[in-house]
Amino acid sequence: MKKNTLYTIRTLGIIYLTILGLYACDNNKLDIQQIYSFELVTMPVHKKLVEGETVEIQCELVKKGEYKQTEYTIRYFQSEGKGCLRFNQATLLENKRYPLKNNEFSLHYTSMCNEQQSFDIYIEDNFGQVIQKSFGFQNESKPDGKPISNNFTLTILPIPKQIPFNDTVEIICQLVKEDTRVLLIKYIYVSLCKKNMNCPKCLCEESVRSGII
C-alpha cells in the first residue's frame, strides 16, 4: 500500500514538473514573437541634383509582424556633401532620433552644394533592432561637363505691405531657372523694428535653403 502511494506521488510530481516546463517554453515563444524584423522600402529617385533642388523620397516600413508595444524612431547622418532632410514638415538634425508613427511616409532632401552627396537613414525599434538605408546624389551637369547655369527669374507672390512689430510673414518665391526648372522657396520674415513696419529681418539666414519646398 505504501509503495503504491509513493509511486503515485512520484508520478504526479513528474507530471507537474513536465507541465511547468511546457508552460515556460510557451512563454519563451511568446517573448520571442514580440520582436519582429522589418525593412525600409523606397521608391526610385533621381540620382542627379542641382544645388537648391529638392527630391521626394517615398518610404514604407515593411514589418514581418505586429506588436502593439513596439516603437520606431528615425535618424539620419550626412556622410558626404551638404544637404537638408525634412520629415513631417521639420528639418532633421543629424544623429537625432525622431518618432516614426506611420508605416508610409515621405522624406524631402534638398541639395545645398554642387558636389557629390550621400547620407544614411537609420530606423530603430525599442528592442534594439536597427536597419540602415543609404542614398547618394551627384551634381547634375550639362552635356559639356559644365554645371547647369544658375541664371534664373525670381517671382515673389503677393505679401502684406506692412508687418506689425514682432510679427512674422511667409514669403513664397518662385525661381524659374535657365534650364526651365521651377523651384519654390519659402522664407519666414519677422519685423524687429517698431518705427518702420516695412523693415523685416530674415529668420532663416544661412539655413534659408532648408525652407525650399
SSE topology:
Elements: H1 2-32, E1 38-42, E2 48-49, E3 54-63, E4 72-80, E5 83-87, E6 90-91, E7 98-100, E8 104-111, E9 117-125, E10 130-139, E11 152-156, E12 168-177, E13 182-191, E14 200-202
Parallel strand pairs: 2-10
Antiparallel strand pairs: 1-3, 3-8, 4-7, 4-9, 5-6, 5-8, 9-10, 11-12, 12-13, 13-14
Task: Sum up the structure in keywords.
single chain, 213 residues, mainly beta, five-stranded antiparallel β-sheet, five-stranded mixed β-sheet, 14 strands, 43% strand, disordered C terminus
Q: Runs with pLDDT <50, length 5+?
A: 197-213
Structural class: mainly beta
Please list the strands of the largest sheet in the order they lie side by side. 1-3-8-5-6
What series of H and E elements makes up the topology? HEEEEEEEEEEEEEE
Q: Which word captures the global form? A: elongated
Span between termini: 90 Å
Explained architecture:
The protein is mainly β and 213 residues long. 15% of the residues lie in helices and 43% in strands. It contains one helix and 14 strands, in the order H-E-E-E-E-E-E-E-E-E-E-E-E-E-E. The strands form three sheets. Strands 1-3-8-5-6 form a five-stranded antiparallel β-sheet, with no helix packed on it. The longest helix is centred in the N-terminal third of the chain and has 31 residues. The N and C termini lie far apart (90 Å). The C terminus is likely disordered.
